[in-house]
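BUG: 3D viewer hangs when loading the predicted structure for this chain

Environment: internal workstation, default settings.
Expected: structure renders.
Actual: progress bar stalls at 90%.

Input used:
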Amino acid sequence: MSINWISKPWGKQRTIHICERIQIDEFEVLPGGYCTAHYHETKDNIFIVHAGDLQVHFLKNAPRPKNHTLVHQWRSCSGSTGAVLVPAGEIHRFVAKEKVSGIEIYRSLQSKRVEVDDIVRLEKKGGIDFARLL
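Structure tokens produced before the viewer hung:
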């Protein structure tokens, strides 16, 4: 378990709890921050936002592993009541127009511990896109 913050191209993240089938990470996304389009094979994840507004984009018909641009739909979660479930296998990315803080819960669909490395990235890296702030 990592109690120290880990820098990400879009902000920072740390694991605050991990047990048999659940992992909970705390995160902060900087204004304009976005993660790579990706999916998890054996775990669901849930974004719960404490402050700010996080858009979670669901991508469909995205070629694997080539580029994709078609947004199927997006859901926004903001404030203390905002939450979005991303089922295993769903290609998604998050985008923040403002600073966002919250937690991300991973739930293993297998009868074993959450696989920390269960992430299939369809892009090289996320980052900060200042054009998203306009």
